[in-house]
Protein: YfhL family 4Fe-4S dicluster ferredoxin
Amino acid sequence: MALKITDECINCDVCEPVCPNQAIYMGEEIYEINSLRCTECVGHFDEPQCALRCPVDCIPKDPAHPETQNALLKKHIRLTSEK
Structure:
């Protein structure tokens, strides 16, 4: 399942540079996550780097985008083959 950034975001700029899929971008008010690019770091790391580094713990799983580990891995393969 993709992750999302909640309204508690303080725009600290920690999450965006650690995303290996460039899924995080600055929205109108806070950072946002493109669910089509978010793999929860599957294929890159053991855990999502953005959530790991977030100082306010505002990056939970997004129930609107449920995905299995296998689906996340397939997304990772698709994204890395685009490069």
